[in-house]
Amino acid sequence: MEIIIRIGAKISEYTVKPIARQLGYLFYYQRNVENLRTHVQHLKDAKDRLHHSIDEAKRNGEEIEADVVNWLSRVDRMISEHTENFLTNEGQLNMKCLSGNFPDLVSRHRMSRKAKKMALDVASEIQAAGGFHKVSYLPTIPSVFEVKGYVAFRSRMSTLNRIMEALRDPDVDMIGVYGMGGVGKTMLCKEVAKQVKEQMLFAKAVMVTVSQTPSLESIQQEVAEKLGLKLEEKSIPGRADRLRYKLRKEKSLLVILDDIWEKLELEDIGISFGDDNEEYKILLTSRSQEVLYNDMGVELNFLVGVLSESEATNLFDKIVGDTVRKLSIQPLASEIIKECAGLPIAIATVANALRNKSHHVWKNALQELRISTPTNIKGMHEKVYSGIKLSYDSLRSEEAKSLLLLCSWFHEDANIEIEHLLRQATGWGLFQGITKLEEARNKVVTLIEDLKACCLLLDGDYDGCAKMHDVIRDVTLSIGSNDRHMYNLRNVAELEECFSSRKLVDSIAVSLSEIDHICRLPEKLEFPKVQLFCLSNRSRPFQNFNMHNLLNQRYIYEQYGKELEIPNHFFEEMKELRVLELISVCLRPLPSSIFSIQNLQTLCLWRCDIGEVGMIGELKNLKILDLRGSSIEELPKQIGQLTQLRMLDLKHCYKLKVVQPNIISSLTRLEELNMAGSFADWHVNGNEGEIRNASLLELKDLHRLTTLYLQIPNAALLPKEFFSEKWEKYNIVIGDVNVVLPDSRSSKQLYLKINKRDIFNDHGLEMLLKKSEVLYLSGSSGFNNVVYELDAEGFPQLKHLQLQSIVGIQYIINSVEKIHACSAFVSLDILQLNGLWSLEKICHGKLTENCFGKLRVIEVSNCDKLKNLFSFSIAIGLLHLEKIEVVGCETMEEVIYERKDDSQSISNETFQKIPFPKLKTLKLCSLRNLIQYHSQVETNCRNQRKDEQLIADFARPFFHEKVTFPKLKNLTLKEVGFLKEIWHGQSEGLPTSVFSGLASLTISELPDLMHLWDENYHTDTAFLNLMALKVSRCDRFKNLAPSWISFQNLMILAVSNSHGMVNLFTSSTAKSMSQLRMMTINACKSMNEIIANKGSETGGEIVFNELLVLEVRRLPSLTSFYSGNLVMKFPKLKCVRIGLCPEMRSFSRGVVSTPQLHKLTLLDKELEKVIFETDDEDMELPDGFNTALDFDELISDDELNYGESIQQELIEGDINTTIRHLQEKNQIGLALRQLFTE
To answer: Most exposed of 262, 323, 377, 746 (fewest Cβ within 10 Å)?
Structure first.
């Protein structure tokens, strides 16, 4: 029975229930439809609620979650396409029923069933809507680096490219960019960020400003926001951990932290990538190099400097617009640009302030810039002044601030001498707790380096100097007057104005910097609080009296100070004065009011016309007395009363003939005595008669003396054991020596003219010789081996050695007879050998590896027996050599020689190269027997060469692949042997490893040289970076170079006295000269045109984009510059000089465009003589001259004119028409006739 029941149940389950469910669709039709309507309404309500949340999220800048967007799309489709259509159809079905029709049971069943299913789907979507806890999210917004106003100047592109290169370097993880405020660091870094994203170097770039008062929490927040990270942690360490975790998950990332002022702990912020950080870089910017290098540990730092004058002009003109085109505005604009001194923010601010302004506003702006009150110009205070003031305020010590204020007193663009600052700072009492001058000097040097690192000072033109940017100077002068009562007044008128306003009553420092020599000074100045006072006659404040200006000239005292006199009571009301400087004034007699200043510490009377100075002895507290360049004739005994004196400077007092006895020995506290170029009439001890002058023995009583600059006419005057071990710095000249080596880096210098060999036996000279860092020797010697006869230890401290006109020296080092290899000149930096007529070898015998290991410069001239410089074994160790110059050595055959028995030579199979990895300059002149730069010969065949071998030698290229110069910049070859080929095209290593970086090339007096490069051997790298080229007296040249040679970076081209040249170059070569600035062609008798006309060229153009100056003279066969039909364009040409070209009928047959050329300069014979004298100068570029930017700085308006030369206006604005007119109408005067007459 149970089985029957179970079977019945199953039958019921599979038959009755389905039937009941199907019948239910009919019976519950209305309920199912209403249920669907209810669910649809609930769905619409859920959708509306969701839309409210979405609208709110969008207003907050949030992105909608993808599943929410998908749900809305499904729901919209469900409502519009299915549900609403169904309900509409259902309504129509009901209408049929209501109208009396019998219900369609099949349709009702189908629709009821569909309604129930749809209701379930709608319910599911409603449930899904309830599961959306968040409908939106805050997106990670990619940083957009819009660099508004960025201009790709050459000076910036060079730095930008180097930064990009560093970012690609896997070994570099941190990079620094530094420069003064407003120079454009931030803008440059934004451009870097923009380019790294465009070039896809990094997946992301984040830039955050740190500022002077950094907040770690704010920095963390900004970095996190730009990476799409929400920092919910409250503590800084917790946030750092979260940020660090996020950074390490990034694929590749560049983080730029802008404007860092002090050490910033990146780990504390959370900026850390772990050990595997090749895909992550950090770029930091700061005003201080010291912060980057020392505090942040960044070893690779790039300086962003000011703009060049041409770049500054372009930026200014771009902002000002059409206003600058007015003729009345142009000269004002030029002066205003100069006052801004290349600082971009100053240029932009002033330019924006002057746009569309009147002539009067421009004149007022220039006036305010000149008188250092630029804050009155709109925008200058908030954009320029405040930024520099911030740099000043951030200096860590009051000493640094005070020293910077002193630097601002020097005139614009001055070289600020550290020695000058030392005198001011010491006298002013700037350094507390420092009693010795050398300690004070170290302090000044340290502060100057700190100020340079902060970009508030710049490097000077000479060692021991600094410079100050003009805009920083203006701001600093303003700070000094407003905050510190330090006034820099330019003239008496300003002084009187300040007196009338009682402005100077509280002044502590005053400078009268440009007093006219015809003005009358007030009888008395009431400066009761002034501690530092300076007065200068016409010359700028603190005119530099450095060695560089005084080497080759003596002052003519009569031209200084004769008309500007100081009233007798002038200083009576300056009782607090500590530092007094008077420059180029008349002090005959000295004003008596000076001697009432008993607190005076420093007295400097420079280039003054001085009479009696005995009363200076009354200034008992004086510590520094500096009379440099004055006309003093006698140092009287009263000076001996200055027992507190630490420094006595009598440098370049050429009229000083009397120094009273016992004065010097009385100055027992003296630490530094400078008598360079001054008194030399020392009394000879033992001579009978009146003792009129001091003797050298007095110096032995100065037990505190550490620095001595002295001139002694004869070694016979030297007392025994005169020289002291205590002297830390000295510059001693003994004998008739007229040369001074400009090496201020070395503190121990000895110049000695030798008369006899035993001069070194007494006086302590041998000790001085060994201690010296700079050594100059001349005269008859009595020795032939410098090292072993003068210092057997090999001069271990010597840095600069010059041997001049010494008879008898055969070797600098001769160790042939020694058992052990010689160690000598291990610290030598510069070696100069001149007029050593007996010198056969510099080195003879075995040397240790470190000999000459630091040699940087070698210059050899007029050593007629010298056949070579160094052997191969020595040459391979000259890794620091930067310059080789050899001139006038008659028998020299090679620079580097290699013998088969050389202990360090190797076989040809191994082929070891001689690398000169740092050589920049190679100059070889007047070496008539020179065969090759490097040669390798058999030892036993050295003196057995046959004529055939000599001929073969002369046919060889001068250089070959065994010698490499990867950084050679300047090459000069003048009157060198029988040179036919400089390098051979088949030498594969030469073009890239030797000469691809060549910037300057001078070829002169090489009559057998046939070409610069063999046209049969093509290379893309020859002369690729050449910037200056000079060819002179090379008669076998037919033209300058093969047509495929590109001179794409050439800026200066000078060709002269090469009579074989028919033309200079082809049109294809001319088209490559896009950077050429100056072209001069002179005295080439066969040249008939400059650019060769091939006859088949049509429809093109030759454009010299940058050419400024074109000179053609003494070309008797020249008919035209170019006789072809190509259009010629010279968009920047401003000066064309023509002289003595009688056959020149036109400039070109085709169209010539010269929009900036208005006149021709016609050179007559007198001007030709002046120009001709400069034709033999080398075309050597100075250190640091790397780009067209440097050349543009050298070109001024004066460079474009020749004084009294004849000017011819262009006729109809066309150079062709003008030249034809001059040819036809050459009767207009003698000067013009000379144009066409040889």
So the answer is: 262
pLDDT in tens, 415-444: 899 999 999 999 999 998 898 999 999 999
- Determine the Cα angle at 556 with ends 555 and 557, to 5°: 100
Q: Which 8-state DSSP code applies to residue 1181? A: P
What is the 3 state secondary structure string of 133-157?
CCCEECCCCCCCCCCCCCCCCHHHH
Q: Are 362 and 327 in contact (CB under 8 A)?
A: no
Q: Do residues 1057 and 1037 make contact, with C-beta atoms less than 8 angstroms apart? A: no
Q: Which residues contact 21 (CB under 8 A, 6 or more apart)?
A: none
| Cα–Cα distance for residue pair 411/409, rounded to 1 Å | 6
Name which of 1218, 1117, 1121 is nearest 1160 in CA terms.
1218
How far is 1152 from 1118, CA to CA, in rounded Å? Answer: 18
Judge whether 722 and 750 are in contact, CB under 8 Å. Answer: no
Peptide bond into 589 cis (omega under 30): yes
Rounded Cα distance, 458 and 488, in Å: 21
Contacts of 124 (CB under 8 A, 6+ apart): none
- pTM value is 0.77
Structure token pair of residue 1112: 């053609």
CB 876 within 8 A of CB 849: no
CB neighbourhood size of 1057 (10 A): 20
Give the pairing type, strands 707-712 and 672-674. Answer: parallel
Q: Which residue has the tokens 């949030």?
A: 62
**In 10 A of CB 1091, how many CB atoms?**
23
- For the stretch 749-777, pLDDT in tens is 999 887 766 566 666 678 888 889 999 99
CA distance 870 to 880: 15
Parallel, antiparallel or unpaired: strands 658-659 and 174-178 = unpaired
Ramachandran assignment for 1057, one of left (phi > 0), alpha (psi -120 to 50 degrees), beta (any other): left
Tokens representing residue 570 in the block: 């002038």
What pLDDT is recorded for position 1004? 92
What does the alpha-carbon distance between residue 677 and residue 628 come to, in Å, rounded to a whole number? Answer: 10
* 206 strand-pairing partners: 255
Query: What is the rounded CA–CA span in Å between residue 583 and residue 565?
Result: 11
Highest mean pLDDT range out of 178-182, 556-560, 1160-1164? 178-182
Alpha carbons within 13 A on the beta-carbon side of 740: 18
Q: Locate 433 and state its tokens.
A: 């707790």
Q: How far apart are CA 62 and CA 536, in angstroms?
A: 69
State the Cα–Cα distance between residues 1188 and 549, nearest whole angstrom.
29
Cα–Cα distance list, 372 to 477, 491, 493, 839 (Å): 7, 14, 16, 60
Q: What gap in Å lies between CA 1025 and CA 1048, rounded to an integer?
A: 7
Q: How far apart are the first and last CA of the chain?
A: 146
CB–CB of 73/156 below 8 Å? Answer: no
Q: Are 1058 and 1031 in contact (CB under 8 A)?
A: yes
Report the distance separating Cα 394 and Cα 400, nearest Å.
Answer: 10
Return the number of other C-beta atoms located less than 10 Å from residue 472's C-beta: 26
Burial environment of residue 1201 by CB neighbours within 10 A (0 to 12, 13 to 18, 19 or more) = middle
**List of residues 6+ apart from 157 with CB closer than 8 A:** none
Asked if the model's pLDDT at residue 883 lies above 80, the reply is: yes
Instruction: Let me know: does 1013 contact 1045? Beta carbons within 8 Å.
Output: yes
CB-based burial of residue 232 (10 Å sphere; 0-12 exposed, 13-18 middle, 19+ buried)?
Answer: exposed
Question: For the purposes of burial, counting CB atoms within 10 Å of the CB of 1212, is it exposed (0-12), middle (13-18) or buried (19 or more)?
Answer: exposed
- Rounded Cα distance between 936 and 287, Å, is 54
Tokens of 930: 């020179």
| pLDDT tens-digit readout, 89-117 | 555 555 444 444 545 666 667 777 777 77
For 728, phi then psi, to 5°, come to: -90, -30
Per-residue tokens: 558 = 């009569």
